[in-house]
Design goal:
The complex is a heterodimer. Chain A contains 4 helices and no strands. By secondary structure, chain A is mainly alpha-helical. By secondary structure, chain B is an all-alpha fold. Chain B folds into 3 domains: 194 residues, no CATH class; 179 residues, no CATH class; 128 residues, no CATH class. A two-stranded antiparallel ribbon of chain B has the order 1-2. Chain B is globular, with a radius of gyration of 25 Å. The chains are: A mainly alpha, B mainly alpha. At the A-B interface, helix 2 of A face helix 4, helix 12, helix 13 and helix 14 of B.
Chain lengths: 75, 523
């Protein structure tokens, strides 16, 4: 989770990722950020976020993103 | 069969009656039979194309479904194996599924390109005299729509986001449900699939709200869109310049709005009468404050299709991710972040343009939309600063109206490429606004020489005000639903709407109503 927050902080260091629940809904992450983030996450966690998982509910908070990573890592 | 015709109304009435009289379990069979009858009017060639799309998509999803079940069974039987081994097995299975889905989609897209483009140069015609080759341009009704519905479904099954419909006839109904065959919407199985197959009881509300929506669609099409169409045609055919170019932008926007949203009202209203909710395709698009917002409100299902099945998948391909990393390392974060997204945006818009038609005017139309969107995105920090500095001005009604009018004008200018179907001529006419000083034409009555009388312009004007009013009143909830709650007012409104269409509709009850733009010219 810390590693994920580090990746997020590289994009927007001013955000408190422990509490923010509307990263997409509040316009903090735009399409540029999301594509950059997917590249970084795929690299860092050895997962592959597929296109169908690019949904606001998966990117709205660090917790939701972490859950997505965990889900993708299970078979 | 043209939606705006007496034949369609008769067909719809018979179908609705048969649908509710039939045993509940057989309602979907009535829908399928109705769809076959509806599409049979399009001719043998069109039917063969639709059948081919249904068969190819059915075979693909069944094959993928079987492989997915086999993979799931293997995984549950081998829970003791290391995670890596199980992952490798799943990935191998997915790769095989990808090959199937790619082959299936490849064939469907090849058929689409052949029908829309290649047949215009190298067509094949089968007749009593045998097989002949030549420029036999095919006109396949709704091929762009049902192909995209089928492709979307195949990808959803591959992604395990939609169930496999094992019944061939039910699959055929999902791909070929008649109302969406002419101009969409491009529905997803998850939104509509099961609705076709569950029983629907006769409900007065569905019949009423559906009928009002159909009548409203007729109003938009026959009282507004078809009434202004001669002026659009005259300005283009007579190659009028100067202020007429601006009038063309305005008239064509009115026409395409009435035509396309009216057509979709007929489509969605027909389905509503049958108790089926198809996805909305418009959400008050001309109230948009930016181009990005406009494209979230106009032709919604098409935009969503290109975002879900082209933009995002392309963004997360390995090559795009490599490009992202490379460009961030070599070109800096600012450019590096943008490069892959910009490339994907351009490719997505190019595909959107070509979907409308394989011609340069659609390519230019798409690239201009793309340019405006990307420039707006770059200017976003500036807009944010403005909003923060002048929050009251930004929130004020005049400023909000200004933004909506600005977006309308910008989109109207870009949209006009459809009219000339000729890129240099469109630019020439655009520049004529600055070189041909004929603004006086607006006030000396010469506008009525465009094939639309002054009285007709008045009717169109009132029709536009009417559309604006209905749109405002239905902002929170559709007006037809509010009318249903007031039976007397509701009955009067429906009767008045039918009366207005009968009295003011172009060519009476649509006997010669022109084809829908999105059902004919584009697709």
């Amino acid at each position: 989770m810390e590693q994920l927050i580090e990746l997020l902080e590289e994009l927007h260091p001013e955000i408190d990722y422990e509490t923010e629940e509307g990263l997409v809904d509040n316009g903090i992450l735009d399409s540029l950020d999301i594509v950059t983030l997917i590249t970084d996450i795929n690299d860092a966690f050895d997962v592959s976020i597929p296109a169908e998982e690019i949904l606001p509910e998966n990117f709205n908070s660090a917790r939701a993103l972490w859950e997505l990573i965990e889900r993708l890592d299970t078979v | 069969m043209n939606f705006a015709s007496i034949e369609f109304l008769c067909f719809l009435l018979v179908l609705v009656a048969a649908y509710y009289l039939a045993p509940k379990r057989a309602q979907w069979v009535v829908l399928l039979a109705g769809s076959v009858v509806f599409y049979a009017f399009a001719g043998v060639t069109s039917c063969l194309f639709l059948l081919a799309v249904i068969v190819i998509s059915y075979v693909s999803v069944r094959l993928i479904g079987k492989r997915q079940s086999a993979c799931a069974a293997w995984l549950s039987e081998h829970k003791e194996l290391p995670k890596e081994e199980r992952k490798a097995y799943k990935n191998k299975s997915k790769k095989g599924n990808l090959v199937i889905v790619c082959v299936g989609i490849g064939v469907l897209i090849a058929a689409l390109v052949y029908a829309k483009f290649v047949s215009g140069y190298f067509g094949i015609r089968v007749s009593g005299a045998g097989i002949s080759f030549g420029a036999y341009a095919l006109e396949i009704m709704g091929i762009s729509y049902y192909t995209f519905i089928a492709v979307g479904y195949m990808l959803d099954v591959y992604r395990e986001k939609a169930p496999v419909q094992k019944n061939f006839a039910k699959h055929a109904l999902f791909v070929g449900f008649f109302p969406q065959l002419v101009m969409g919407p491009i529905s997803k199985y998850s939104d509509v699939g099961e609705q076709y197959f569950v029983p629907h009881a006769l409900e007065g509300k569905n019949l009423y709200t559906g009928a009002v929506r159909v009548a409203w669609g007729f109003f938009k099409k026959l009282v507004v869109a078809d009434a202004i169409a001669p002026a659009v045609g005259a300005i283009v055919a007579q190659q009028r310049s100067g202020v007429y170019f601006l009038l063309l932008c305005l008239f064509y926007s009115i026409r395409i709005y009435g035509d396309f949203t009216g057509g979709i009202d007929i489509v969605l209203g027909s389905a509503e009468m049958l108790g089926i909710r198809l996805p909305e395709n418009f959400n008050r698009p001309f109230s948009s404050k930016s181009t990005a917002e406009y494209w979230r409100r106009w032709h919604i299902t098409m935009g969503a299709w290109f975002t879900n099945y082209i933009f995002y998948p392309l963004s997360v391909t390995k090559s795009m991710q490599k490009l992202s990393k490379w460009s961030r390392a070599h070109l800096g974060t600012a450019i590096g972040k943008r490069l892959p997204v910009y490339i994907t945006t351009i490719v997505t818009w190019l595909a959107t343009g070509l979907w409308h038609g394989i011609a340069w005017n659609f390519v230019v139309w798409a690239m201009l939309n793309c340019l405006v969107l990307l420039v707006s995105q770059e200017l976003e920090p500036l807009y944010t600063k403005f909003r923060t500095k002048f929050p009251r001005l930004h929130a004020s009604a005049p400023y909000q109206t200004f933004m909506a009018v600005r977006t309308f004008c910008l989109m109207a200018l870009i949209r006009v490429f459809d009219c000339y179907m000729n890129v240099p001529l469109t630019f020439q006419k655009f520049f004529s606004v600055f070189t041909t000083p004929n603004w006086g034409s607006l006030f000396d009555g010469s506008v009525t020489s465009l094939g639309v009388s002054a009285a007709s312009f008045c009717v169109i004007g009132v029709g536009i005000l009417f559309m604006f009013g209905v749109s405002r009143l239905g902002k929170d909830r559709p007006l037809r639903e509010k009318l249903w709650e007031r039976p007397w007012l509701g009955s009067f409104a429906l009767a008045a709407l039918v009366f207005l269409v009968l009295v003011f509709g172009t060519y009476g009850l649509g006997y010669d109503a022109s084809a829908f733009i999105y059902g004919g010219t584009f697709n």
